[in-house]
Amino acid sequence: MSKAGDTAKAESEGASASQTSTLTSLKSTISSQILSSNMSKAGATPKTESEGASASQIRTLTSLQSTISSLELINSLRRKRDLMSLLCSYPLDMRVIFDDFISKPYCESKLPLKLEGLLPKEIIRDAENGDRSGSNFIFGDANLDFIPEAILDMAADLAVHQLMETLISICKSKNPKHAKCIRLSTRSDVEKRTVMEKVTAALNDKHHSLDILNSFHGHLTIDATGYPTSEAEKELKQHICQLLQLSTIKYDDILCTLQIEDEMSRSRYLVILVDRDGEEIVDPQKVGLYGTLLTGVLVLITTDSPSSQQAKEGGLKDGLVNLEIRTKEHLLPWVVFCDTAGKEFVYSSDAILTTAVRIVEECRSHLHAILLVAKWLKNHQDVRMWELALHKLQFTNPSHDVINFHGLNSIMINTFLNLIWDGMNKTQQNCLLSCSGIPKIRDGIVDHELMNHWMSSLFVDAGETEKNLRQLVENSIFLQFDGVGGRYIWLPEETYQMLEWIYTLYPLFIEKSNLGLTEPPNTDKWHNAVRIELAGNKISELPESPDCLQLKVLMLHRNADLTKIPSSFFYHMPLLCILNLSYTSVRELPCSLFFLEQLRELYLKGCECFMKLPPEIGNLEKLEKLDLDETQITHLPKEVQKLTNIQSLTLCFYEYHVKKNMPYSCSMIIPSGVLSKLNRLEHLCIGVNPDDARWNKNMQVILPEILGLECLQTLSIYIPQLELLKLIPARIFELDFRFIVGCHMQRIISSIPPATDVEFKQSDCSLKFVKREGVTDEIKMLLRHSKALFLDRHFTLKSLTEFEMKNLEQLRVCILAECKEMQTIGGGGDLDDNIDMLPHLLFLSIFQMKNLRSIWEGSTPPHCLFGMLQSLSLQSCPKLVTLFSLDFLGNLSLLKKLIVKDCPKLSTLISHESSKRNAHAFLPKLSKLLLLHLPELSSISNGLQIGPGLKEIAFYDCPKLHSLSRKELVSKELTAIKGETNWWKSLEGRTPNFNLIFSPINEEADLMTQLGICDDDGIDNGPGDSVGKPSQPTGIATCVSNSPTRRGKYRRRRISKTWEVETSYLTEDGYAWRKYGQKSLFNNKYLRHYYRCTHKYDQGCLATKHVQRIGEDPPLYKTVYSGQHTCRRRP
């Protein structure tokens, strides 16, 4: 065989096992589709007659039209079958193209060929239409002025290779009957004899002999060229009988035919029949080689010349041919190359033509490699470029080790690495490398989904993304096809695997978070990285000046041991867009950071050692987001006004002076005129220390500037003076605002559980009204647009009705704390029956209300009152006597959680009068009920049925509750009852079912942890509380000072994240702690011990506590908790 033939055999890269399987499935599917199409297109008789035509004429016409339509469909299927069989024999994995064809039943509208960009449009169009005439034009001599001899010989080799692969697939098929006749058509009688020699040589090859010939009982090669006319058919039959070693009677033609048919029906034969030369052709049916060939295979090698086509009417019909292989169609690699590179350039000189032939031979029928090379050479007339391309195809790239590409087509490796990869710009290389993380791109991905991936992961803008995708498609690196939902982008398997390997050498994304690393990974792999994540480790030092020319995202947050960044660290990161240094111990920013011209986002949240924002911050003119929450900066430099592109700004200011008359380091927290320059600002969050006397004056200056920001969408701010509310225009109320209004001072420890505080902070449009008297019109207006209200220490308010209920209609969350004059939540005055009462409220928490007597007071409450309420919590209400009346109880049909704690006068949840009426079960949605520290509680519901869906109930310190009544607890879904062991033993009327679901409370362990409500909203969990996720930025932060450090500076902590517990013994709180220090205090003989969560580094939990003994007889311990657990609670 020729070089091309040797290559076709050697490159069983040409048809892998998966391709062979695909080929077998393809042929089986198409054969059944053609059969069903023949049956379904038999012709239908219309039910109506046209004017002027008889019924018989109509039926004849309809039958004719149906027959024509049937033939067109069958021809289309045959054409597609032959083309896809041809493509399956080539090295490129075509599964993505054939999936729909193989898996779906035949339908003209559902069988497009997904070959756009891979083959010339004319070939695709003709295959869709089932037309071979166009293909004759495309593949024929008239289209390509002169086809080099080497290409013709290569086409013959490829046709024989396709035949061998087809025979192998038939031998391996579970259905050996699906293809029993293959016609191999050549261009001429001369080529026919050449192909016969190649087929004989291929079958004699040891590899093919094992795979093919051993699967048959016998193998016959019948050369009919020695029997030139149909008159010699008797002699041909005699010759076949001799080959089959059958006894024959001379001149008995009928007996000879019967013997051949009998032998063929009993044994499986591979028959190679070479047709006669000229116009006379052999009919296999007449010589007994087809009709009874049940499990064998007949290969008819014939010619495809016009004369033989006319004579075929007497030969083997197209309908009996299961597959047609044409040497002419195996000119496809040459046609694709010429069509892509430009035929006029290929044939422009003998030198280029000779080189082009060698290139196509070198590509060994790999269509994708041919496409890539042709696109690279398109419109080039310089023969040196063509010779360079050939050279690159023949030699391995020295910068890549081919051993790492084991199993991939070597020519594709050379084509991609030598011609394509090295010639792409860095952005395109990164786009391709990022595809290695999208496995489904091997089967096709919608183009806009791929572009979105690039934009989000590589920070490439939409215009550049679209441009890169278009170029990659135009250069045939990506292939594309139309599908459901749009245009699909397909990356061939070989290219995908090469990108995977390149990615291991030059990763785009280095993700090493939460691994406990004490030093950064090797910087050798940093230079190609686009994103590096090293968060949550124990890194304390960074390299001096790493080479990161492509880096766009650097995540270093939660490395608490990182105190300093080398001054030159950022010099070689010109493209850095996002930098996260949150919750590190950095004290200052290195000078190299301020040369990051592309920096868009800078996060310094929780950097408690960071005290000064340098003026050089103004150099970062492209900065869009700056987060300084929970830092210790004292003022904002005026250079911030240069950040005209900033869209989100989170600030938190702290200023303390040890002595009363000691001056502030800076008279203004935010200089005048700074905020007004930030015209694009959309999100502004300012937190201050409420003890900072500068803020009152500063607020009067900057508030008009803030209100003039036209793009503002979110505003979080502390407004100490009610008079300032008069300056706020109505349009501000349409924003997502978070306001603290009032005198927010002198609060060392919050009485509000952290989880409740988080519920409030996560709400949109929230108002925290603090330490005031009376209700102004401005507050009412603000309430009218609020969805969350935190009323903290109001001195005169007796009921929410004083706000006017119409102003509370939008509330979803309501928290009431330490309002000493409040006696009831609603009622107690003249109410408008036409106004809904808190119709959208979902969450209500009440704390430390020393004069609260009821939730509703007065006449029957409106039906809509609390109609949407899902969570109700009451804590520390010493005068609360009645919780619900029967009339009020009917409003709580959606209540899911009810927690009542530390209400010493409460004897039952429902007033005594309501017990006279017992119609049906109330609180139908209630699933959790907690009753804690209720010393007078003697009945849960005073005989009423409640909670038919109740799942969990808990009691603690309810000494007068002597029984659990089945009349009250009617739930059949109850799965848990919790309480003290001694109380349970003394309980009257315990049922066996109750005993099965009871679990005792360990009185030495943390109560709320055992009750499983540390994540509950509105529950005072005390120690060990966790909301299950990190808290949101507080924004309107208020801060207090604790004890000074050795340097005389004051550490600041957020009020809302700190609470204390005093106990007579040290208790477990359900979390794992690690001691990290201790110190002695003035006038106290006991040391203070400091602890942090054990999961600070592996899970990023920032919760801390300190414990100190404060009493000796009896012993007393004070534990102060700070921060919220974001780790998983230990079992």
UniProtKB/TrEMBL annotation:
InterPro entries in alphabetical order: At4g27190-like_LRR, LRR_dom_sf, LRR_R13L4/SHOC2-like, P-loop_NTPase, Plant_NBS-LRR, WRKY_dom, WRKY_dom_sf
Keywords from the named record: DNA-binding, Nucleus, Plant defense, Repeat, Transcription, Transcription regulation
PROSITE patterns for this protein: WRKY
One GO term describing the cellular component: nucleus
Domain WRKY: 1062-1125
Principal cellular location given in the protein's record: nucleus
Entry GO MF terms: DNA-binding transcription factor activity; sequence-specific DNA binding
Pfam families: LRR_14 (PF23598), LRR_RPS2 (PF23247), WRKY (PF03106)
Region (Disordered): 1-22, 37-56
Basic and acidic residues bias spans: 1-12
Record-given protein name: Uncharacterized protein LOC107468800 isoform X3
Localization in the cell: Nucleus
Keyword Protease: no
Naturally occurring in which organism (per UniProt): Arachis duranensis (Wild peanut)
